[in-house]
Amino acid sequence: MQRTHRTPALLALLLAVAVALAGCGKEGSPPVKGPRPDQLPVYQVRSDFTLPDSPTWERAKKRGRLIVGVKEDQPYMGEKDPATGRYSGFDVEIARMMAASLGFDPNRVEFRTIASANRETALQNGQIDYYVGTYTINDNRKKLVGFAGPYYQAGQSLLVRADEKDIHGPQDLAGKRVCSAAGSTPYQRIQKNYPKAELVAYDTYSVCVDNLLTYQVDAVTTDDTILLGYAAKVPDELKVVGKPFSKEPYGIGVPRGDNALRLALDDALAAHEKNGDWKKAYDATLGLSGVPAPKPPAIDRYPSD
Ligand code: GLU
Hints:
Elements: H1 8-24, H2 55-63, E1 66-70, E2 73-74, E3 78-80, E4 87-88, H3 90-101, E5 109-113, H4 119-124, E6 130-131, H5 139-142, E7 145-154, E8 156-161, E9 177-181, H6 185-193, E10 198-202, H7 205-213, E11 219-223, H8 224-233, E12 238-241, E13 248-255, H9 259-274, H10 277-284
Parallel strand pairs: 1-5, 1-6, 9-10, 9-11
Antiparallel strand pairs: 2-3, 3-4, 7-13, 8-11, 8-12
Helix pairs in contact: 3-9, 3-10
Bound molecules: glutamic acid.
């Protein structure tokens, strides 16, 4: 039986209600789904730490706080609570771990939301000290910024409406309207390998998801980590289909040439993977998607850039 299409306005309302239900619970109570703050590890701040060879670290020390670039609309990974302004998610936890290892107290870390297309310029202009936000390491980007890590490996996937019957993988995208974020590797991959798809770009994936729910596009494509978070917010409306069709190793972006900072972050990642913080952070955030913690990928301590 053909399911009747709901009107866009009704869908938008349904989404708003679903998001409100998922995000708030009773006033003051933790979200029904999402990171559980009580289960997050407290990271040991290294108060004796110095890094005189890193201009970025020296600048942050003088300023008295670290400024870290993140995402704010990617559930499980980097999400900002509009009521409290607090950021949460696996990327945000990685950012907090790194800050502690660099000698910064949690209350000395300021998060700044930066969209996919603006990451390189934000690092080049010194707007942020480092960036943790589903940021794929690749050779093109390495010409512009440095990367510590990887600390996780994601894969490109597809998000469709729950009643979608035709789209099972990227091979089914010919003639379909497909949305992704400007400047992202998933956008570039569809453009190059699936040129028959009608690509639509916005600054953020959450705008793509709004467009999917209101029948403006047929699919949203980006990393599985991000799409699973959107699907979990409205499981009756959205589903992730097919198998991941790329490798997206996530790195911590740093200003290019600041090898001291990059290698200090590599050391810090290795230490937090070893002492169990990485797994605890994963379990309390991205692990809520139902995917058990994998073994973190090997850290790539590449020579000076
Ligand atoms: N990991 C991909 C990228 O860095 C997609 C996610 C994102 O846009 O942050 O482009």
